C-alpha cells in the first residue's frame, strides 16, 4: 500500500498548519513506500536549501522504516553506521523525517520537513503524520 | 518575482482537474524563477518514472524561458542544439513544460507535466499555466 | 531581487583587492538569490581545488541565508545538523561564504571565497560583501 | 601555460562588448588548459540554463583542443563519436566553445558562450578569443 495523493495533501496541510502556528517557514515532502516523491510544498520564504533536505529526510525515513533522528544516533563517529549518509544518493539523518504507518501497522510512506531547528522540523513532521496514522512501526512485516 | 505557494497550488489544482477530465494520471511540478521546486503532486497511478520528468520539464522551461517542446525542435540530430539535454543535470526537451508569465510579462516560474502522451502533457500544463497567466514571454526583460 | 552583474563585479573586485593586501590567492564566486552562479574569478596561483569550494560556499550561504561557518558549528559530530553537507549536491560549511543583503534587508545573493585559511577566506568574503551591503539578514522576509 | 586572470578578464570583457553590440544576453566562461574554471560572467537577463552550457562548452573545447561545433559534427547519429556527450561529466558539442591559443601555438585555455543562437554564441566566443590570440591550434604539441 502506498500513501494516496489525498493522504499526502492531508499530511502536508496539517504540517503547514503547524508550521504557521509556530511561526516557521518549511519545506514539506511526502514519499510513498517505494521512497518515490508523492507531493511537496515549499512555503513562501522557506530556505531554498531545505527543498532537498526535506525530500532526503522523507526518503531516509522510508528507506529504513524509522525516524531520521534514530539513524543519526547510529551514524556518529565511532557508531555502527558512521558514513551511511553516502548511500542512496545522499541521506539526511537528523530529525525531521518520519515514517507514515497506517492502522494495520503497514508503512505507507514517509514525511520529511526542513526549514527551522531540528526540534521544530520534527514537531511539524509529527503533525503531518498524525493526520494519517502513526510513525510507530511494528517489527515486521512492515513493507507494503 | 517568484511564484508563491498559493500560485503553485492553484496551477497544480487546475492541471489535475484537466488531467482527470481527459482521463490521465499525471505528475505535476511547479518551480520558481530560479528553477527551484515550489510544489509537486503525483496523482495516484501515475508512472513513477514521470516524477523526474515532470520536475525536469519545469526546470527546462524556466532555464530557457520557453516551452520545452520548442527546445526539442532545436535539439534533434543535425539541428543546432543537438545534445543540449546533457546540460544542467539533465534536461527534458519534449512538450509538457511551460514558463509561467505574469500580467507584467515577468517569468515567475514554470510548470512541468508528465504521465501521458506529449499532447496530453502539454494540454495539462497549459491548463495549469492559465490559472495564473500565460506562457508567452516578451523578448526582454523576463527574469525576476 | 537578484545581484546584478555590476554588483557581482564590484564585490569580486573588492574581495580580490583584500586578497592581494593579505598576500593570498583566492577563488571568489558570487551567486544570485536562487543560488545560480553570477560571476567567478580565480586569481593566478590559487588552488584548483578551491574552485568548487568557493562556488559551494556561496551556494550554501544563500541556501540557508547565513554565513557558512554558522552552519558548520551545527553540523559537527553530535550537533543537530551533523551530515547536512550531503544535501544539495554537496555543501561547504566552514567559513568563507556570506549572504549579500541589500539596504532593504533583502538577500540578493551570496559570496564564497576559498584559497587560504578559513580566517582569511572569511575576511576576503567580508570585504566583498561590504562593497554592496551587509551579510546580516533580518528574520523575515528575506527571499527575493 | 595557463590563461591568466588578466587574460580571462580581457577575453570576457571583449565577449560581453560583442554580446551587447548584437543585443544578446550571454553567459561567458573561461577555463585554463586543464579545463578548470578561471572566470565566469552571467549578463543580467541571460538564461539561467546557459550557466552550465557556457562552462561545459569551454571545457569541451579544451578537452579536445577544437571548437565545440567540430565535435558536434562527429557526434551525430551514425558518425564516429556518437554519444561522446556522456563523457567527462557531460559535454556540449554545438558551437560556442573555442580553444584559446597563444602566439606560440600553445593552447592556454578556452572560452564558452551560451545565451542566444549558436551563430551568435560562436560570434561572441570568437570576439573573446581575439582579445588574446587565435583558436587555431597547430597539430601537436599543443598542450601546456
TrEMBL record, chains A, B, C, D:
Any Pfam family hit: HbpS-like
InterPro entries the UniProt entry points to: GlcG_carb_metab_protein, PduO/GlcC-like, PduO/GlcC-like_sf
Domain of life per record: Bacteria
Organism of derivation: Methylopila capsulata
Protein name, UniProt field: Uncharacterized protein GlcG (DUF336 family)
Amino acid at each position: 500500500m502506498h500513501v494516496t495523493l489525498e493522504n499526502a495533501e492531508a499530511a502536508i496541510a496539517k504540517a503547514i498548519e503547524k508550521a504557521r502556528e509556530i511561526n516557521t517557514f518549511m519545506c514539506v515532502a511526502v514519499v510513498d513506500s517505494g521512497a518515490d516523491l508523492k507531493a511537496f510544498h515549499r512555503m513562501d520564504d522557506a530556505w531554498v536549501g531545505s527543498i532537498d533536505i526535506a525530500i532526503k529526510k522523507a526518503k531516509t525515513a522510508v528507506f529504513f522504516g524509522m525516524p531520521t533522528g534514530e539513524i543519526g544516533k547510529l551514524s556518529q563517529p565511532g557508531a555502527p553506521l558512521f558514513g551511511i549518509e553516502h548511500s542512496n544518493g545522499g541521506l539526511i539523518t537528523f530529525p525531521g523525517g518520519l515514517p507514515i504507518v497506517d492502522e494495520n501497522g503497514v508503512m505507507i510512506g514517509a514525511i520529511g520537513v526542513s526549514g527551522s531547528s531540528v526540534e521544530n522540523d520534527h514537531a511539524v513532521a509529527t503533525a503531518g503524520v498524525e493526520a494519517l496514522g502513526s510513525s510507530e512501526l511494528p517489527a515486521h512485516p512492515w513493507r507494503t
